[in-house]
Amino acid sequence: MTHNPTNLDELLPAWEAMYEPGNVSDYLIGYTNSEAAAKGAAIAWVASQTDMDPATLEWVEAPAGYRHDSEYELIQLVDGMVFGTGAVVRHRRAQALRDCPSCEIGSEHDAHCPTPESHNWGCGCPTDAKPADDRRADAWYAQQEAEHAAAEGAGA
Prior knowledge:
- The structure is a single chain.
- The chain is an alpha+beta fold and 156 residues long.
- The protein has helices at residues 8-11, 35-49, 101-104, 132-155; strands at residues 15-19, 27-32, 57-62, 68-78, 81-92.
- The chain has a five-stranded antiparallel β-sheet with strand order 2-1-5-4-3, with helices on one face.
- The protein starts with 7 loop residues before the first helix and ends with a helix.
């Protein structure tokens, strides 16, 4: 029996190095199994594509999006001035941690949704509440049960 991977976590290493020039499409430099390898690949790529001196390059932490839990930008320091290189390294969150509304808004919490489908059904996130449609359905079923019980009580 063949195993068919169902998410990125099974297919690709979690660290990615990208070149994001800002005015055109982003370029994937590569995927790696470690932060050091991703940063090394990005520095090597920048050095091969530009005349930047690798000794002037430095990594700085950048805000990570909700699909990544850490992100670093490669900058160049020349005579006290900072220049962007367009190179970025980031770590992809595990599938279970993506698509969690609490993570997306940056809310601190201990428990994560095991899958996006199970969110809001006792997952422990601060937004742990059923969607309005499910609350309406629960109210309708409760009303039906109450009416049924009242009908049985009246006929007994």
